C-alpha cells in the first residue's frame, strides 16, 4: 500500500513538473509575436484557461472571470486567452464589441462547433454566403410574414398554455415548461400549424441536447457532452426531414395549405440562381430553433421572476396592462399591434431583463485575416469572443448593474455597442422584433390573469452556458381572475 502511494505521488509530481515546463516553453514560443498581442494569459497547454472560466461560471459570480483579467492587465477592453480548445481574443468594451460585430471584412461567424447547427454535409460556399442567408431570413421574418401577422397565433398559444398550467394541482417546473411553450410557438410560426404535439415534444427533447453541446469542447467520444449532441443532431435532423416531407405531401393534396415561414425559405433561390440545398434547409431550421427559443424563453422566464420578486415593479407593470385593456372598445377581442406599441413600461422591463442576463456570455467570431484592433494584433484564424455580458454589466454604462431597474431606461439610449442582446451590424438577429412580440404577449396575459408562486425563491443560478435557475424554478401558476 505504501509503495503504491509513493508511485502515485511520483507520477503526480512528474506530471506537474512536465506541464510546468511545457507551459513555460509555450509562453516563450513566438515571443516577438506575443508582444503584439493583447495582454492576457494563454493558460496551460491544450486546456488553456477553460478550467478558470468554468470555475467562474459554476460559481454565483461569473463576472469574476473578466474581472480577474481586468485586475491583472488593466481595463484595456481586449485580452488574449485560450478557451474551448482555441486561441482566442476577448473584447469586452462597447466600442470594440461594435467594431468586431460590424467589420465583416475581417471577422466572420466563429462558433467552435457550428457543425452541430449546419451539419457536415452543407457545402462550404453556402456557409460562406452568410450575408445572403441573413438577407433571406430577414426578408422571410420581417417582410414575407412580418411579426404582426403572427399576433393571433401567439396569443392563442399563450392563453391556452397559461390556462393549462393554472389547472394543474401540482407545481410545475417553470423553466422547462416555458421552454416547451416557446418551442411550440416556433414550430407553429416556422412550419405553420398542423405539426403533431407528439412530434413537437420529441423534436424539443433532441433540440435541448444539441443546444447543450454548442458550448462544449468538441470531443466526439462517448461519454462527452459534445458526442451526445452530435448523436442528438442526427436524430433531430431526421425528425425535421420527416416533418418537412409530411408538409410537402399535405400541400400536394390540400388546395389551401397552412403555410409557415419555411415555405418562403424553401422556395427561395440564392442571388446567383442556385436553389436552396435541402441539408442547408435542415441546418437553417436548427439554427432558427436556437436563435428563436433561447433568448425568447429565457427573457420570458426571468422577466416573470424579476417582477414577482419586486412587488412595486410588478404593480407598475400590471397597472399599465390594465389601463390598456380599459381603453379597449367593448367589441374588441384580443390584443392589437397598436396596443403592443403602447406598452412603454413593459418594453423597459424586457430590455432590462435582456441586459441583466438573458443571453449567453459571448458572441463568437473568428478573424478571417490577420488584422489589428486598438493597435493589438489579431492573428488569422483566432476566435474573437465579443463578451456582451461584460458590457451589459459595466457600471460605467449601467450604474448598479446587478440591480433590476427598468427605470434606468427612462430617456436612456445606450451608445453603439453598449446593448447587444440581438447582436448588431450584419449579424443582427433578424427575428428580434418577433422575439420581443412573443415575450410581450406572454407577459401581458401573465400579468393580467396570473401570479407566480415560487417554491424556492432566491435560489442559486446556473450561469453556463446561459443563466437559468439551478432548480428549474418549481412554482405554482395561480389564476387571479
Task: Describe, in plain words, how this protein is organized in 3D.
With 481 residues, the protein is an alpha+beta fold. The chain folds into two domains: 1-29; 37-479, Orthogonal Bundle (Cytochrome p450), CATH 1.10.630.10. Helices cover 54% and strands 10% of the residues. It is built from 19 helices and twelve strands. The chain has helices at residues 2-28, 31-36, 50-58, 64-73, 94-102, 115-118, 124-127, 130-144, 151-167, 174-191, 197-213, 225-253, 261-267, 278-309, 311-326, 337-341, 344-357, 388-392, 432-449, and strands at residues 78-83, 86-91, 107-109, 172-173, 363-367, 371-373, 376-378, 383-386, 450-454, 461-462, 468-469, 474-479. Strands 1-2-8-5-3 form a five-stranded mixed β-sheet, covered by helices on one side. A hairpin with a 2-residue loop joins β1 (78-83) and β2 (86-91). The longest helix has 32 residues, at 278-309. Residues 1-15 and 124-128 have low confidence and may be disordered.
Amino acid at each position: 500500500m505504501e509503495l503504491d502511494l509513493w508511485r502515485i505521488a511520483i507520477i503526480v509530481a512528474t506530471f506537474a513538473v512536465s506541464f510546468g515546463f511545457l507551459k513555460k516553453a509555450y509562453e516563450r514560443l513566438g515571443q516577438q509575436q506575443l508582444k503584439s498581442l493583447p495582454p492576457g494569459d494563454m493558460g496551460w497547454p491544450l486546456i488553456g484557461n477553460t478550467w478558470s472560466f468554468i470555475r467562474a461560471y459554476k460559481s454565483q459570480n461569473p463576472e469574476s472571470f473578466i474581472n480577474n483579467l481586468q485586475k491583472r492587465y488593466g481595463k484595456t477592453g481586449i485580452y488574449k486567452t485560450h478557451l474551448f480548445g482555441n486561441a482566442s481574443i476577448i473584447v469586452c468594451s462597447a466600442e470594440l464589441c461594435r467594431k468586431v460585430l460590424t467589420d465583416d471584412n475581417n471577422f466572420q461567424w466563429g462558433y467552435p462547433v457550428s457543425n452541430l447547427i449546419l451539419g457536415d454535409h452543407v457545402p462550404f460556399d453556402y456557409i460562406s454566403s452568410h450575408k445572403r442567408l441573413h438577407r433571406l431570413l430577414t426578408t422571410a421574418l420581417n417582410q414575407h410574414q412580418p411579426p404582426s401577422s403572427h399576433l393571433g397565433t401567439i396569443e392563442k398559444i399563450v392563453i391556452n398554455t397559461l390556462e393549462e398550467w393554472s389547472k394543474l394541482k401540482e407545481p410545475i417546473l417553470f423553466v422547462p415548461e416555458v421552454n416547451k411553450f416557446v418551442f411550440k410557438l416556433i414550430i407553429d410560426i416556422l412550419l405553420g400549424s398542423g405539426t403533431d404535439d407528439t412530434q413537437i415534444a420529441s423534436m424539443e427533447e433532441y433540440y435541448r441536447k444539441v443546444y447543450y453541446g454548442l458550448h462544449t469542447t468538441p470531443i466526439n467520444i462517448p461519454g462527452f457532452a459534445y458526442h451526445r449532441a452530435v448523436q442528438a443532431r442526427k436524430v433531430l435532423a431526421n425528425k425535421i426531414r420527416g416533418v418537412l416531407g409530411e408538409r410537402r405531401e399535405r400541400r400536394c393534396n390540400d388546395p389551401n395549405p397552412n403555410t409557415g415561414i419555411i415555405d418562403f425559405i424553401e422556395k427561395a433561390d440564392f442571388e446567383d440562381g442556385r436553389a436552396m440545398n435541402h441539408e442547408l434547409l435542415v441546418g437553417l431550421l436548427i439554427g432558427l430553433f436556437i436563435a428563436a427559443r433561447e433568448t425568447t424563453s429565457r427573457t420570458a422566464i426571468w422577466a416573470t421572476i424579476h417582477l414577482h420578486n419586486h412587488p412595486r415593479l410588478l404593480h407598475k407593470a400590471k397597472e399599465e396592462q390594465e389601463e390598456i385593456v380599459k381603453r379597449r372598445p367593448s367589441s374588441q377581442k384580443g390584443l392589437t399591434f397598436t396596443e403592443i406599441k403602447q406598452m412603454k413600461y413593459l418594453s423597459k422591463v424586457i430590455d432590462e431583463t435582456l441586459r441583466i442576463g438573458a443571453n449567453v456570455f459571448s458572441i463568437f467570431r473568428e478573424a478571417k485575416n490577420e488584422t489589428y484592433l486598438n493597435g493589438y494584433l489579431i492573428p488569422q484564424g483566432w476566435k474573437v469572443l465579443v463578451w456582451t455580458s461584460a458590457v451589459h454589466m459595466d457600471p460605467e454604462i449601467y450604474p448598479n448593474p446587478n440591480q433590476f431597474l427598468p427605470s434606468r431606461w427612462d430617456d436612456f439610449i445606450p451608445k453603439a455597442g453598449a446593448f447587444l442582446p440581438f447582436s448588431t451590424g450584419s449579424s443582427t438577429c433578424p427575428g428580434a422584433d418577433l422575439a420581443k412580440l412573443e415575450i410581450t404577449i406572454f407577459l401581458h396575459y401573465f400579468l393580467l390573469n396570473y401570479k407566480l408562486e415560487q417554491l424556492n425563491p432566491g435560489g442559486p443560478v446556473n450561469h453556463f452556458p446561459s443563466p437559468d435557475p439551478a432548480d428549474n424554478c418549481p412554482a405554482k401558476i395561480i389564476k387571479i381572475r
